[in-house]
Write a structure and sequence with these properties.
Layout: H1 2-15, E1 34-40, H2 43-51, E2 56-64, H3 73-77, E3 84-91, H4 98-106, E4 116-117, E5 120-121, E6 127-131, H5 134-150, E7 160-163, E8 168-169, H6 177-180, H7 182-192, H8 194-202
Helix pairs in contact: 1-4, 1-5, 4-5
């Protein structure tokens, strides 16, 4: 599946407009901190793939996209707040690009599922990309377009792309859950069928 991964990433880089005029202006310094926010079902399962990436500084589980201020896990999980579980990533763009983060996001979700992810059903587990600026929006849209053209599965891609709103960090016991409770985490992940479905969608990693 490396060919598909690389093709999507290159497509995003090629389709995203470059700022400034070609070779007419000196390069603009890139800050060493940027934020990306992705929702892909249970936030416990979305932290590990990003934590592995060189250049990712931190991942925080939380809630975004709803109308209730300071929501709790109990409120979000029963639905009705409009929020979805998400992970907010602080990263160094000098080490890892947003396009690479998008690639990791897509290959850790089921982009064909409109109302939930894997065994978790409901709008509070929807998949969604929350962009923080116009460049992220362009790259997110480009990556979705590339996936539609190159996907190894037949179903349509239904993941939403939305401007980021207020992000509320989840309760402390949710943060780094896979490290704090490795056995419970593995039991949940296996029971939810996440890895089995990811393999059906994307094939085995090379």
């Amino acid at each position: 599946m490396q060919t598909i991964h690389r093709a999507i990433w290159l497509f995003v880089l090629l389709i995203t407009p470059l700022s400034g005029t070609l070779a007419a202006e000196p390069p603009v310094a890139v800050p060493d901190r940027a934020i990306a926010t992705f929702a892909g079902g249970c936030f416990w399962c979305m932290e590990p793939p990003f934590d592995k990436i060189d250049g990712v500084i931190s991942t925080t589980s939380g809630y975004i996209g709803g109308h209730k201020e300071n929501p709790t896990y109990k409120q979000v999980s029963r639905g009705g707040t409009g929020h979805t579980e998400a992970v907010q990533i602080v990263y160094d763009p000098n080490k890892v690009s947003y396009a690479e983060l998008l690639e990791t996001f897509w290959h850790n979700i089921d982009p064909t599922m409109a109302n939930g992810q894997f065994c978790d059903r409901g709008d509070q587990y929807r998949s969604e990309i929350f962009y923080h600026d116009e460049t992220q929006q362009q790259q997110a849209l480009a990556s979705k377009q590339a996936l539609d053209e190159l996907k190894p599965f037949k179903a349509p891609v239904v993941t939403r792309i939305t401007t980021a709103t207020m992000f509320y960090p989840a309760e402390e016991y949710h943060q780094d859950y896979y490290q704090k409770n490795p056995l419970r985490y593995k039991f949940y992940r296996h029971g939810c069928g996440r890895d089995k479905r990811l393999e059906e969608l994307w094939g085995k990693d090379d």
